Amino acid sequence: MATAMFTDCSTSTTAAAARFLPLNRDAVVLHSRRSIPLRFGPINPSLFRTTGTKCHASASPSVLPAAMAAETSAKIIDGKSIAKQIRDEISAEISRMKDNIGVVPGLAVILVGDRKDSATYVRNKKKACESVGINSYEVHLPEDSTEQEVLKHISGFNDDPSVHGILVQLPLPSHMNEQNILNSVCIEKDVDGFHPLNIGRLAMCGREPLFVPCTPKGCIELLHRYGVPIEGKRAVVIGRSNIVGTPAALLLQREDATVSVVHSRTKNPEVITRQADIIISAVGQPNMVRGSWIKPGAVVIDVGINPVEDAKSARGYRLVGDVCHKEACKTASAVTPVPGGVGPMTIAMLLSNTLTSAKRMHNFK
């Protein structure tokens, strides 16, 4: 039997450090067992699309659950299109907030060092803020900055009433204590959802986190938007990182799924994964999850974003997920593409969390 080699923290989950919208205008989305009302629009059936000849769109999202068992080719869960719809809805809500109380949400991002990937993530977040009308504030510190310098900037943003969300871009330089820095972010502005009090509340029944980590929140929202039933289903999360795997498992539990977590010490991971109705993979190993790992009709959410060599590409590489997409399309009922699946949802959920923070601080309904 093949042995799976993987880590629990992928480059994609780091990028995610780098959000829940309803199906109907007056509906609610459950990021926990309590519901929070939002004003967003209905799903657009055109969000189902195809990728070549391997995966085919069929009926509208409203009939997805009934079709799952019968279909032998996967529907594509188009995160890019959903994220755009979400951004449009957030933009409209920000305009309503500005018109009514004169407040514009603000997001502050702290970047330490000169990693090109981190700089790209921060730049993309800034563009996303601009696209919906969120004010963005950025601090870029050199690699050799002290931990105290970072903490000083966080303290300033904590006290700034125009800032409603604070994001520290990960990874931090090795000489800094990541836990100390993340813990210093005011919990009311922890739009990344990484503060231990937010994670602790997420883990406890009857407690509500102020924010949920963006990438796992986006994964659950994709399932909601496509009408995928979660309650009573068997779910497997591959990877146990603090950023994606662990909070994703907690969110699935809150949705009353029966959850197993596959990690680097799990024996026969393919056997466990093959029992799942829903798979969320976030381990950072290209094409690790093969078609033989997937139960016919399962729904697959692929968080991985992994570069692999490709001489035909101008960049010399292409991006693939943790899941072998071509094989998954032959077995799963629905699957996210890479890129264009979970990635756009992460930033959309960050914007959603920032808006939520601003509305909460100003008691705007």
Automatic annotation (TrEMBL):
<dbReference type="GO" id="GO:0004488">
    <property type="term" value="F:methylenetetrahydrofolate dehydrogenase (NADP+) activity"/>
</dbReference>
<dbReference type="InterPro" id="IPR020867">
    <property type="entry name" value="THF_DH/CycHdrlase_CS"/>
</dbReference>
<feature type="domain" description="Tetrahydrofolate dehydrogenase/cyclohydrolase catalytic">
    <location>
        <begin position="77"/>
        <end position="192"/>
    </location>
</feature>
<dbReference type="GO" id="GO:0004477">
    <property type="term" value="F:methenyltetrahydrofolate cyclohydrolase activity"/>
</dbReference>
<keyword id="KW-0554">One-carbon metabolism</keyword>
<feature type="domain" description="Tetrahydrofolate dehydrogenase/cyclohydrolase NAD(P)-binding">
    <location>
        <begin position="213"/>
        <end position="360"/>
    </location>
</feature>
<dbReference type="InterPro" id="IPR000672">
    <property type="entry name" value="THF_DH/CycHdrlase"/>
</dbReference>
<keyword id="KW-0521">NADP</keyword>
<protein>
    <submittedName>
        <fullName>Amino acid dehydrogenase family protein</fullName>
    </submittedName>
</protein>
<dbReference type="GO" id="GO:0035999">
    <property type="term" value="P:tetrahydrofolate interconversion"/>
</dbReference>
<keyword id="KW-0378">Hydrolase</keyword>
<comment type="subunit">
    <text>Homodimer.</text>
</comment>
<comment type="function">
    <text>Catalyzes the oxidation of 5,10-methylenetetrahydrofolate to 5,10-methenyltetrahydrofolate and then the hydrolysis of 5,10-methenyltetrahydrofolate to 10-formyltetrahydrofolate.</text>
</comment>
<dbReference type="InterPro" id="IPR036291">
    <property type="entry name" value="NAD(P)-bd_dom_sf"/>
</dbReference>
<dbReference type="InterPro" id="IPR046346">
    <property type="entry name" value="Aminoacid_DH-like_N_sf"/>
</dbReference>
<dbReference type="GO" id="GO:0005829">
    <property type="term" value="C:cytosol"/>
</dbReference>
<dbReference type="Pfam" id="PF02882">
    <property type="entry name" value="THF_DHG_CYH_C"/>
</dbReference>
<dbReference type="InterPro" id="IPR020631">
    <property type="entry name" value="THF_DH/CycHdrlase_NAD-bd_dom"/>
</dbReference>
<comment type="pathway">
    <text>One-carbon metabolism; tetrahydrofolate interconversion.</text>
</comment>
<dbReference type="InterPro" id="IPR020630">
    <property type="entry name" value="THF_DH/CycHdrlase_cat_dom"/>
</dbReference>
<dbReference type="Pfam" id="PF00763">
    <property type="entry name" value="THF_DHG_CYH"/>
</dbReference>
<keyword id="KW-0560">Oxidoreductase</keyword>
<comment type="similarity">
    <text>Belongs to the tetrahydrofolate dehydrogenase/cyclohydrolase family.</text>
</comment>
<keyword id="KW-0511">Multifunctional enzyme</keyword>
<keyword id="KW-0601">Photorespiration</keyword>
<dbReference type="GO" id="GO:0009853">
    <property type="term" value="P:photorespiration"/>
</dbReference>
